[in-house]
Structure formats: structure tokens, C-alpha cells
Design goal:
Shape: elongated
Low-confidence stretches: none
Number of strands: 8
Radius of gyration: 22 Å
Helix content: 25-40%
Largest sheet: 5 strands, antiparallel
Strand content: 25-35%
Distance between the termini: 18 Å
Order of helices and strands: HEEEEEEEHEH
Number of helices: 3
Strand order of the largest sheet: 7-6-5-4-8
Length: about 180
């Protein structure tokens, strides 16, 4: 009877840890941590990614894994170089960036289709500078994600802890099963 209760407790604990991993995995997608078990999509098959090297930086990758925006990028239709991306918003057809330039002025970039298509048939995009009034008029049409490196690091660490915990519990359950049947 004691073994049955122990299996139930460890089985429930294993299930909770796996469930928490899936929740953090899904949450991490928007912060650029990656998502192993979800199918979230941004427009144009873009993927958010946080560079964990020092200093941390946030980028958006295209469907082939190439950076299309991030620190140091300058676009033809803008007159500044991106120093830091503060947050981004997206809807079904567009991406909007709030970033800073080299003088820490807040700038806004909106995506637009260039007229070309990738090998996979996805429209190629670029970004153009817009003023605050234009940003203010359209900002409510987007789902916003604030870039928070601390939160991204916390999500990565929690995912790691949940995996390690689930594996240790699984090993414990297997060890008990082996000792029972031997």
C-alpha cells in the first residue's frame, strides 16, 4: 500500500512539473527564449530570439533563421541605427517595433512588404520609420510584448529546473519499479 501511495505522489509531481514546463515553454516564445512544444506564429513566419551572450540583445528572425531586425540594423526608409528594441507588437499582417537610436531617442518602425517573396513563398518584409502620431493611431491594433531580459532568463532557468526535476522523479519511479520487480 505504501508503494502505491508513493507512486501516485511521484506520478502527480512528475505530471505537475511537465505541465509547468509546457506553460513556461509557451510563455518563453514571445520573449525569444524559444518554444519546443508550441505552434505560435507571428506574421511572415518571424521568430523572436534573444541572444543570451553579453550584452543580451533581441532580434527577429525570418523563416530561414536570418536576422531581419535587431541591434545595429538600419533601414533604407529610416535615418537611424537601432540601439535597443524595447518592445514589439504584431497582428496578422504587420509588426511594429518600439526601439531606441544611438542617442536613446525612442523610435518606431513598422513592417511593410517589399514586393519580393522568399523561396517558400512568404512575402519579404522590411521596416520603415513612423512618427509618434502614426504609432499612437495604430498601437491598439497590435498584441504587445515588452522585451525583458530578466524575465527571459527566468523563463530559461525555470524550464531547466522543471526538466531536471521531472527527470529525477522519473528516475526515482524507475528505480522503485526495478526494486519491486527484482
Amino acid at each position: 500500500m505504501k508503494n502505491v501511495k508513493e507512486f501516485i505522489v511521484f506520478g502527480l509531481l512528475f505530471f505537475v512539473l511537465v505541465l509547468l514546463y509546457f506553460i513556461y515553454d509557451s510563455t518563453g516564445y514571445h520573449y525569444g527564449v524559444g518554444c519546443s512544444f508550441c505552434n505560435k506564429n507571428m506574421p511572415y513566419e518571424l521568430t523572436p530570439k534573444i541572444n543570451s551572450d553579453y550584452p543580451q540583445s533581441f532580434t527577429l528572425l525570418d523563416e530561414d533563421g536570418f536576422e531581419i531586425t535587431g541591434v545595429g540594423f538600419r533601414y533604407r526608409q529610416s535615418n537611424f541605427k537601432i540601439k535597443k528594441i524595447l518592445c514589439y507588437g504584431y497582428n496578422d499582417t504587420s509588426v511594429l517595433l518600439k526601439c531606441t537610436d544611438s542617442l536613446n531617442n525612442i523610435k518606431y518602425l513598422v513592417s511593410y512588404e517589399t514586393g519580393e517573396k522568399s523561396d517558400k513563398g512568404i512575402p519579404a518584409i522590411s521596416f520603415k520609420d513612423i512618427d509618434y502620431e502614426s504609432y499612437y493611431q495604430i498601437e491598439n491594433n497590435y498584441q504587445w510584448i515588452e522585451i525583458d531580459e530578466e524575465k527571459a532568463n527566468t523563463i530559461q532557468f525555470m524550464k531547466f529546473l522543471f526538466v531536471v526535476g521531472a527527470l529525477l522523479i522519473l528516475l526515482h519511479i524507475l528505480a522503485k519499479l526495478v526494486s519491486i520487480f527484482s
